[in-house]
Design brief:
Largest sheet: 4 strands, antiparallel
Strand content: 5-15%
Strand order of the largest sheet: 6-1-4-7
Structural class: alpha+beta
Radius of gyration: 19 Å
Number of helices: 11
Number of strands: 7
Length: 243
């Protein structure tokens, strides 16, 4: 999940399922995703933060599953405070000053809101170690149903889907590093290279080989030609590889 404010007057634009353009204003929450999306990435003066899993509820005061798989205007969550913050950020003289101002605004919100449930914090740490989902749920000290409810509220995705995204993140790192795809598949936790390829197609919209060939400057953003058939063919446009 990420929170972004554009400091010029160019709104954030993304494309929804079916290729319809959505204009989201200049302050946006990008919810956690298990699929890609398409965004207008023209240069703009921007300040933002990529959030750790389970940060949404303490920081934003909204369950993460209400924000997942989509973009939300930040002022729908923070109200008039967004305009005030954006005005302060526009007055800053340097990127460092803008980041400092933004970080202070985020920190100021934390004491008034709830912290992460201990069982969820435990699970997130274990999932980073490639631990089996069933074992983590069993060790969390909650009923299965209660754990699933708390996890989706905190993180935005069900545990198995969240771990699927984590595994894909590990695969991206291996592909970008130039490792053989068979090695990437095993190291990331896939059954074989064919399994890796299917997941890449599902989550990124391209094969691992095509992704490597594109060689994006940032490993979660793949450039797409606006004149390509990608925008002319009805499809489900929903991997953030990145924001």
């Amino acid at each position: 999940m990420h929170v972004v404010l554009r400091l010029d007057d160019e709104p954030v634009r993304v494309w929804s399922e079916g290729g319809r353009e959505l204009e989201l204003g200049t302050a946006v929450i990008g919810g956690i995703r298990s699929s890609y999306y398409v965004k207008d990435a023209r240069p703009a003066r921007t300040v933002g933060a990529q959030l750790h899993a389970a940060a949404a509820l303490p920081l934003l005061g909204v369950p993460a599953d209400e924000l997942a798989e989509r973009h939300t205007r930040l002022d729908d969550v923070w109200g008039a405070a967004v305009a005030s913050l954006r005005a302060q950020l526009r007055e800053t003289r340097s990127p460092e000053a803008a980041l400092g101002c933004f970080e202070a605004a985020l920190q100021a919100r934390l004491p008034r809101l709830r912290a992460v449930h201990p069982a969820i914090a435990y699970a997130l740490a274990r999932f980073d170690e490639l631990t089996d989902v069933g074992c983590v749920v069993a060790d969390a000290g909650l009923s299965h149903r209660r754990f699933l409810t708390l996890f989706q509220e905190a993180v935005g995705l069900a545990p198995k889907r969240y771990c699927r995204v984590l595994r894909f993140q590990r695969a991206i790192n291996g592909v970008v590093a130039g490792q053989p795809l068979s090695v990437v598949a095993i190291d990331a936790g896939y059954s074989d290279q064919a399994h890796l390829t299917r997941e890449f197609q599902a989550l990124a919209g391209v094969s691992p080989g095509a992704y490597r060939h594109i060689c994006p400057e940032r490993d979660h953003h793949v450039p797409v030609d606006p004149g390509s058939d990608f925008f002319k063919t009805p499809r489900r446009l929903s991997p953030k590889l990145g924001s």
